[in-house]
Amino acid sequence: MSDPTAPEPTTRLLNADLAPTTDAQRTWRSWDLFCLWMTSAHSLGSYSFAIGMLALGLSGWQTMLALFVGVLGLWLGSNLIGVAGQKVGVPFPVFARATFGIFGANIPALLRGLVAVFWYGIQTYLASLAVIALIVRIWPSTESWTTGGFLGQSPLGWIVFMALWTAQLLVLSYGMEIVRKVSDFAGPVVWIGMIALAIWILAKADWSIDWNARVGAVLSLPSTIAAFVAVAFLMIAYMAGPLVNYSDFARFAPSKKAIKRGNALGIPVNETAFVVLSIIISLSALKVFGDGTLDPVHLVSKIESDVLVVIAALLFALATIGINIVLNFVSPSYDISNVAPKYISFRTGGIITAVLSIVVLPWKVWGSEVAIVYFLGGVGSLMGPVFGILIVDYYLLRRQNTRIADLYSVREDGTYFFTRGVNPAALAALVISGVVAAIVALLPDDQTITALSWPIGALLGGGLMLLFSRIRPAAPRTRPVAEPEEPAAV
């Protein structure tokens, strides 16, 4: 039976895409969630991140072990968010309404969406580089099209970027079900390219690598420990955005068991395997070419066979597009839709996302260390506080209870109306912990310190949320707060 005291949902907060998931929509099995995490890991950005951790000075095996510890932390966080998202059955911006207020939720949602918009453009640009390398390899005369151009992009760059941009938009116009199918395809298929690349480079290295190889001098014991901790937390921070909005996908799972099984296969098993393979390729490249930081596109360009180059470039382009669709399009589409649900659907939010991804000129952002570190790094560091605040509120303050109907109500006696639609405790916790996290992420000239921005932000945000909520509890409502058996009608 539905709750007779539940308020009527309002179009100010509700549309078909933001509505609670129905049983018929819960089609994401453990395999689909496994593929989702595979798609998340299998990209040029993920590979570059994994091998980039060698720059902190750890040896190959130490880096691999540190990344594994980070993977375990990511696994724990995904279970916490995933189980909550599956139970409540709503996308991230709606889930956040219970914590930040029905209108206050737009703040963390738009912060997450802003980061995703930039990365959507960057990943499309990275995929275009793989395709350009393929085109030039097959038709050398097109190399003349890779110089000059407009707004920092060559003529060939614009053509390929816009072709991939259009293809992704067409795919995504079919909604979340097509996202599931793309994830199921893109996640597994890239293993073909990665394994083939590993075999090729290992053969070049005479089937042996030095697991003790490192970039730079041997570190002291204290420096080794600091670098180890930094790599572990950077692993979590790298996936902090997708972790926060995991409920966008978890809500389509049929059960908590499906969530936990999919997470277990996709994170500790698959992520660890990808890390191992990435380090093997990096150490082999270090031995063969004297540079362990070469990305797969550069390594592929060194293959003599044109056929293999074509196959590898296509696989890496597909992988990058796959992660783009899953991680960098879904989130801002929901987040933008949440601002004005009556006028902006998931598809409309997606179109806005795609247009913005061009406006931000992602190739210039990717080419600017200042932009990556200070803008994306600074805004991205806020994902730690958001995570901590959400977890503390859901598990410790609300005890896993949610009045789903009130997530869509603007009535002043609604459970999540708080003060004019904003929860002061959550907002204060986000501002304070966010400032601290951003300072830790941006000011120190030491990556072993900046890497601590995520755990510091998450712990401080969660702690302040608990403290502020106990000091000044939300005003009592005139209606009893209990979780209804059925979601709000749509």
Overall description:
Keywords: Membrane, Transmembrane, Transmembrane helix. It is a multi-pass membrane protein. GO terms for molecular function: nucleobase transmembrane transporter activity. By secondary structure, the chain is mainly alpha-helical. It is built from 21 helices and no strands. Helix 1 crosses helix 14. The chain has helices at 30-41, 44-52, 60-88, 92-95, 97-100, 106-138, 155-172, 176-204, 221-238, 240-244, 247-250, 256-289, 296-301, 306-339, 346-359, 362-366, 369-380, 383-397, 424-442, 447-450, 453-471. The protein has a single domain (23-366), classed as Hydantoin permease (Orthogonal Bundle). The relative contact order is 0.20.
Explain briefly what this protein structure is.
By secondary structure, this protein is an all-alpha fold.
Specify the CATH architecture.
Answer: Orthogonal Bundle
Strand percentage lies at: under 5%
Order of helices and strands: HHHHHHHHHHHHHHHHHHHHH
Average residue-wise pLDDT:
85
Strand tally is 0
Task: Specify the CATH class.
Answer: Mainly Alpha
**CATH fold title:** Hydantoin permease
State the distance separating the first and last CA atoms.
16 Å
SS-based class:
mainly alpha
Question: What Rg do the Cα atoms give?
Answer: 23 Å
CATH superfamily: Hydantoin permease
The unreliable regions are: 1-6, 476-490
Shape: globular
- Structurally, the number of domains stands at 1
Query: Helicity level, as a percent range?
Result: 55-70%
The helix count comes to: 21
Biggest sheet statistics = none
